[in-house]
Write a structure and sequence with these properties.
The protein is α/β, with parallel strands linked by helices. The chain has 25 helices and 16 strands. The radius of gyration is 24 Å and the shape is globular.
């Protein structure tokens, strides 16, 4: 099937033909999707959109009239600045907590593995284990790998409390950046401490100075980026393998009409890694064949998919807005979920098919799903149970309803910091030299989610295309990585889409102009790489020709990511308006004042062409300040993106 034969509505909602085809099917068959529910919500609350509503206590809920004709203070006396800052602080705490709790799950399993209390897990990268232990001061000389792992687990567990006074990995940040954090009083002390304090500060009658509140919000975000997320990334590498370049495929075409299809959805690799192993079990493959299938096909969605692709080359079915559509193919036997970004609606959509929704995390149950409580102590056995359930569901598949649109697109993943430096000969020097010569003007991390208020993937793709055409290297994680994979940006041949300088570098190294660095938590790889470049040059991160962008973000985690990236010295462009515009003072601080405080700020620009132009100017300004060759960027310097797909006007609020 091709979306080009569908109605115009589908083409306005997404640029992807596989998604368009499934949206058309859903509409014909009366299956409700995320876009239908967004439309039903219109008009959405204007007070909430501006950050001017508060329900933090039972004297409310309160709201501030943005036009000054109604209430200008909540019942407690809080004005717009305080209410907006409180709401933003709580959003950052929720996002930071999500990533950091993911990190805690990895850490606890890592410790249990080291003590021999799990099945299905082992140390996959002992060299990295010992490097990490040396970095945080855990003895390694004469110690077995298991002994080192126990010591490392205990040391990192202290990062979650108040015992240490600062996090283990902030030593990676340049000395100037650490000194700045100390001067501002935002050095992250303990992961749980900062999140709890953020919630305390935003209780009624505690912190009522919006600047003070937002400075602690940055501290809370830093506890995620340099704490919980970094712990999750580094220990996942030790347990499952440090990613190295690997070829795979992406879009709904990775599903197989003749195989048992299992989609892994969520964010934590603890479950998905053992599922991939169980799907290769000869006994289960034979069971699948006995039911008429030719094998078992595991595919990924969202960041669990990114984890599997980076380390195992497992194909990727799609990103956030594809989770309902993959069910509508009728080809999925099971969607196995852990937590984060999983729509409750998948249970209702699955009822229209034979697909089993299998929830696995006790902190993330879904009414109507089959719950299999995942315990790493019995990881291998539980994975076998789940795969068996999926195989047995194949017998109930209605083959006449199977519709798999299109063919998969090739993509390359696996660009960890180690892989990138390895491709450069083990040192940042070749990359620094390429930037210094102007072959690469700078680098931008394009990250974040999908948001149904925007045509799916359009902003990601057009922004990326405009950047690489102008010799800007792009790093991607999360849903943005899937979008660029589907667009063909993530294979070595895509160097032909880049400007002449970036193209020459990519062709020399055999890499794409868009590098897949992993899942949401793996944005910690981005700041670690930035820190390594800054250390090599002897400057702070804010001096480098770097930027961040989240063109289609939706989640609290994305706000936390953007905040720790900015607090680390990298200006970040948002494509979706955050709920802060009810306070001109908060907007002024985040979009301007922070530049004088941390050397970076937020920019809100929904037009990807304008965002690309703004980023180019920022990069050239950074180059000039470093004494590197620079150019004056004008609007005419950015030709229309070659791969941009016109999809009509934006939808939603």
């Amino acid at each position: 099937m091709s979306g080009s034969n569908g109605n115009g509505r589908a083409r306005r909602l997404t640029i992807n033909e596989d998604a368009q085809a499934m949206i058309d099917v859903a509409r014909r068959e009366g299956i409700e999707t995320v876009w239908d529910r967004l439309e039903a919500q219109q008009p959405q609350c204007g007070y909430c959109a501006l950050g001017l509503s508060c329900r933090n206590c039972a004297m409310g809920p309160c709201r501030i009239d943005p036009f000054g004709e109604g209430p200008q203070k909540g019942v407690c006396g809080a004005g717009a600045d305080v209410i907006v800052a409180r709401n933003l602080g709580r959003t950052i705490a929720a996002g930071s907590s999500s990533h950091s709790d993911h990190g805690r799950d990895i850490l606890e399993t890592f410790g249990a593995m080291a003590r021999g209390d799990t099945t299905g897990y082992q140390i996959a990268d002992e060299a990295k284990l010992r490097r990490l232990a040396d970095e945080v001061g855990v003895p390694t000389e004469g110690q077995t790998a298991q002994e080192v792992a126990i010591g490392l687990a205990d040391a990192l567990l202290d990062d979650y409390g108040t015992k240490k006074g600062s996090l283990s990995f902030i030593g990676r940040a340049p000395e100037a950046r650490r000194a700045l954090w100390a001067e501002l009083g935002i050095t992250p002390r303990g992961i749980d401490r900062e999140n709890v304090e953020m919630l305390h500060r935003t209780h009624m009658g505690v912190d009522n100075d919006y600047v003070n509140t937002l400075l602690h919000a940055l501290r809370t975000a830093l506890s995620d980026g340099w704490g919980g997320s970094m712990i999750a990334t580094e220990l996942s590498d030790v347990m499952f393998g440090t990613p190295a370049p690997v070829m795979s495929e992406v879009n709904l075409g990775v599903l197989r009409t003749d195989q048992v299809n299992i989609a892994m959805h969520g964010h934590n690799p603890l479950l998905s890694d053992v599922i991939v192993a169980a799907a290769q079990d000869p006994e289960l493959i034979e069971l699948a064949r006995s039911l008429g299938a030719t094998g078992i096909n595991v595919v990924g969605l969202c960041c669990t998919g990114n984890e599997m692709l980076m380390r195992r080359g497992v194909p990727m079915a799609g990103n956030h807005l594809m989770q309902e559509l993959v069910l509508i193919t009728g080809a999925l036997e099971a969607m196995v979920v852990d937590y984060q970004c999983i729509m409750p609606s998948i249970v209702d959509v699955a009822k229209c098919y034979h697909t089993k929704i299998i929830s696995t995390s006790d902190k993330a149950k879904f009414t109507g799903a089959t719950h299999v409580s995942f315990d790493p102590q019995h990881g291998a056995e539980i994975a076998q149970q789940i795969v068996r359930m999926a195989v047995e569901a194949y017998a109930d598949r209605n083959h006449e309803r199977v519709r798999i649109p299109g063919k998969p697109v090739r993509m390359m993943g696996g660009f960890s910091v180690e892989a990138i430096l390895g491709a450069l000969g083990g040192t940042p020097k070749p990359l620094v030299d390429a930037i210094a010569s102007g072959a690469i003007r700078g680098a931008v991390a394009v990250v974040g989610c999908n948001n149904p208020k925007l045509p799916q993937d359009l902003e990601h793709i057009e922004l990326t295309q405009r950047l690489i055409e102008n010799d800007v290297l792009v790093l991607v994680t999360g849903c943005a990585a899937v979008a660029n994979g589907k667009a063909g940006h993530m294979v070595p041949e895509a160097a032909a889409m880049a400007g002449p300088g970036l193209r020459s570098v990519c062709e020399a190294l055999g890499i794409p102009p868009v590098l897949h660095m992993g899942s949401c938590v793996d944005n910690s790889r981005v700041i670690a790489l930035a820190a390594a470049l800054a250390d090599y040059l002897g400057v702070d991160i804010d001096k480098l020709p770097l930027a961040g962008a989240a063109p289609e973000w939706y989640s609290e985690k994305a706000v936390a990511i953007g905040s720790y990236v900015v607090a680390s010295g990298i200006t970040t462009v948002l494509g979706v308006q955050p709920a802060i515009f009810g306070s001109p003072n908060v907007v002024g601080l985040l979009a301007g004042g922070l530049d004088d405080v941390v050397g970076a700020k937020f920019v809100v620009e929904p037009d990807p062409a304008e965002a690309a132009l703004w980023i180019r100017r920022l990069i050239e300004d950074k180059r000039r300040d470093l004494g590197l060759p620079f150019t004056e960027v004008v609007a005419d310097a950015l030709a229309p993106a070659a791969s941009a797909t016109p999809v009509g006007s934006r939808t939603g609020a």
